């Protein structure tokens, strides 16, 4: 089977980590690449994104995207299927897709309802929503993110059902 390159995005608590892990487990010789790992590597001087991010926060975000793309392509070129998972909002999605240009990227955008995101957020150990509401972020994400790739409303699906739909979409 030929190796594949998936990019999964969506708002926080949309199911990216769970779906990406399950998808990677279904692929032969695969890697689940969590872009956020590069943010977490910064020990001192990290500036996180916010509603009104600093220039440094945006610079660090784009560094994270570049490191993710370079790592993904290195694994892909070595014969691995790669499932990239991170937050790519608005024009940042085009930025990331350009970093992967020339490769067969299978883009998946998880888009559950704000109500489902709120419920999922309650059950998480980490808090992704500070400084803005779930509704604000979901609305901005849907309004500003380019309509490219496979958008899936996974509100009423189990993670396994979402993976099945993704595989059906890209194998068909």
Automatic annotation (TrEMBL):
The keyword ATP-binding applies. Keywords: ATP-binding, Nucleotide-binding. GO terms for molecular function: ATP binding. InterPro entries: P-loop_NTPase. This is ATP-binding protein.
């Amino acid at each position: 089977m030929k190796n594949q390159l998936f990019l999964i995005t969506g708002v926080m608590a949309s199911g990216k980590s769970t779906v990406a892990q399950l998808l990677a487990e279904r692929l032969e010789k695969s890697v689940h690449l969590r872009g956020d790992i590069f943010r977490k590597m910064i020990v001192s001087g990290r500036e996180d994104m916010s509603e009104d991010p600093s220039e440094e926060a945006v610079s660090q975000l784009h560094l994270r995207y570049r490191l993710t793309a370079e790592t993904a392509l290195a694994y892909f070129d070595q014969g691995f299927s790669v499932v990239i998972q991170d937050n790519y909002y608005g024009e940042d999605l085009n930025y990331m897709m350009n970093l992967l240009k020339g490769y067969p990227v299978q883009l998946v955008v998880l888009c559950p309802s704000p109500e489902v995101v709120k419920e999922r957020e309650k059950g998480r150990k980490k808090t992704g929503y500070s400084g803005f509401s779930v509704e604000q972020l979901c609305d901005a994400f849907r309004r500003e993110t380019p309509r490219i790739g496979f958008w899936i409303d996974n509100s009423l699906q189990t993670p396994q059902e979402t993976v099945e739909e993704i595989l059906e979409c890209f194998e068909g």
